Amino acid sequence: MAQLQVQLNRLTLRNPIMVASGTFGYAREMAAFVDFSKLGGIVPKTVTGEPRIGNPPPRTVETTSGMLNSIGLDNDGIDTFIEKHVPYFAGLNTSLIANIAGRTVADFASMAGKLANLEGIAALELNISCPNVSGGVDFGTNPESARDVVKAVREACPFPVIAKLTPNVTDITKIAAAAAEGGADAVSCVNTFQGMAIDWRKRKPILGNILGGLSGPAIKPLALRCVYQVAKAVEIPVIGIGGIATIDDVLEFLVAGASAVQIGTANFYNPGVSVKLVEQLNEALDAEGCKSVTEIIGTAQQ
Ligand code: SIN
Hints:
By secondary structure, the chain is of the alpha/beta class. The protein has one domain (6-54, 73-198, 216-295): Aldolase class I (TIM Barrel). It contains 9 helices and 17 strands. The chain has helices at residues 78-90, 105-115, 138-141, 143-156, 172-182, 220-233, 247-256, 266-269, 273-288, and strands at 6-8, 11-13, 17-19, 41-42, 47-48, 60-63, 66-69, 95-101, 123-127, 161-165, 186-189, 193-196, 198-199, 204-205, 211-215, 238-241, 258-263. The strands form 4 sheets. Strands 3-4-8-9-10-11-16-17 form an 8-stranded parallel beta barrel, surrounded by 6 helices. Helix 2 (105-115) packs parallel to helix 4 (143-156), helix 4 (143-156) runs parallel beside helix 5 and helix 5 (172-182) packs across helix 6 (220-233). The radius of gyration is 18 Å and the shape is globular. It starts with 5 loop residues before the first strand and ends in a 14-residue tail after the last helix. The protein binds succinic acid. The site of succinic acid (SIN) has 14 residues, from loops.
């Protein structure tokens, strides 16, 4: 059996297969379907400083090989998160990576400070890339803002910090480099691609918020490109996200340069997929004669 452990700077994962924010609830909802101890990590839904009711319905629509969502960061706010969910996380046998989104740098830092000494959290993922709320992508589209927010969070808490990047920029490598400069332990590549769906018969956009974020297999080649470019541009580890559903998808992202991956949309139709992928990763690495998963990371040739 190959060694599956990966090191993302200060964050150690038992294996490189994680589940992505917004596709796995707050973990508790998935306990009947998934043995958490088999996963590399869980990223629960984004939490904000104050409760949010989210965007008007419809909030999701299926598209060719994917889905659009415009949830609008619907959540109960950080205080409820700390009271209701963090104690549950503390009992889980996996790395729990809290995902936070703020309106300002101070907001991010304040949330990081509130979480700072709590048991049950292994790292923070900063959502600087939500396309569905006003200001959601602002930190992720401007290198200085990306650097400042990462730096502020690093100063506010002892946790490893991961910046979740948006692909909706001209050059994602510049944002990744800025996050690294701010002290990010890793970057997650990528959040959803902005898109829309129209019901032409009604002459109307389908989503209540008109625009949404596209995910699923439809975006895989686009996300893979981002991971490949970012992994070449920065020294910090990259976590690949975008349409990953099969073991070949996982291996493509690892070979492109991802040190770990997050499974997102596939959880909606197959909640057990991530555990299956861990098993299949072991088999695939054995078949390749690899003693460790690290032997395959970033091995794509020119
Ligand atoms: C949402 O809540 O609208 C999705 C979250 C995200 O894409 O960051």
